[in-house]
Design the sequence.
């Protein structure tokens, strides 16, 4: 969902793009800082696990686990909003 919202900014009407970005910001704010960082880098900045590894010093396993847990939390939050 984050990828779709981030990628569709150009195709959305300006008011919808703003609302989508606001939703992404609110969802990301619900995450722990490390989870927020990994989601931002992997999905919004489209960085690879190797790039995130170099920038953070975390192992690939740590990055994947944090991303997995963050995605689970986001799914729960989105489910609660619908």
Sequence:
């Amino acid at each position: 969902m984050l990828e779709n919202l981030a990628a569709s900014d150009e195709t959305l009407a300006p008011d919808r793009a703003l609302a989508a970005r606001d939703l992404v910001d609110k969802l990301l704010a619900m995450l722990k800082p490390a989870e927020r960082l990994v989601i931002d880098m992997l999905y919004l900045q489209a960085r690879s696990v190797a790039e995130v590894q170099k920038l953070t010093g975390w192992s690939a396993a740590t990055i994947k686990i944090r991303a997995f847990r963050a995605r689970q939390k986001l799914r729960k939050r989105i489910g609660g909003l619908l």
